[in-house]
């Protein structure tokens, strides 16, 4: 059974930083891509960062230049470094992986940015 467990969320003031981690466990032959999404109350879940299995990264317009996604395949972990956080970055952050014929989500980790 595949499990994704996020950690690193919390409360921070505007301008601060947080680093999220997502540990992937279970029987997985290969991971095609990994991504971070976020969802705030009353809003749709949106992708904020994406990384392929050859380390090509893409970012949402609102986080580009402030967030950095990376992966450590030896540790089965994907990270999201979030700098210069803004109140609009508040939400629950979810990790997602895409494997052949399936996709898996974590349970989310909350991030609150106060002004």
In a few lines, what is going on in this structure?
This protein is mainly β. The protein contains no helices and eleven strands.
Describe the 3D structure.
- With 115 residues, the chain is mainly β.
- The chain has no helices and eleven strands.
- The protein has strands at residues 3-7, 10-13, 18-25, 33-39, 46-52, 57-59, 67-72, 77-82, 91-99, 102-105, 109-114.
- Strands 2, 4, 5, 6, 9, 10 and 11 form a seven-stranded mixed beta sheet that branches.
- The chain is globular, with a radius of gyration of 14 Å.
Question: DSSP strand (E) fraction?
Answer: over 45%
Which stretches are poorly predicted, pLDDT < 50 over at least 5 residues? none
What is the mean pLDDT? 96
Overall geometry comes to: globular
Q: Count of helices?
A: 0
Instruction: Determine the N-to-C terminus distance.
Output: 40 Å
SSE string, helix = H, strand = E? EEEEEEEEEEE
Radius of gyration using CA atoms only = 14 Å
Helix content: under 10%
Q: Tally the beta strands.
A: 11
**Class by SSE composition:** mainly beta
User: Can you summarize the main beta sheet?
Assistant: 7 strands, mixed
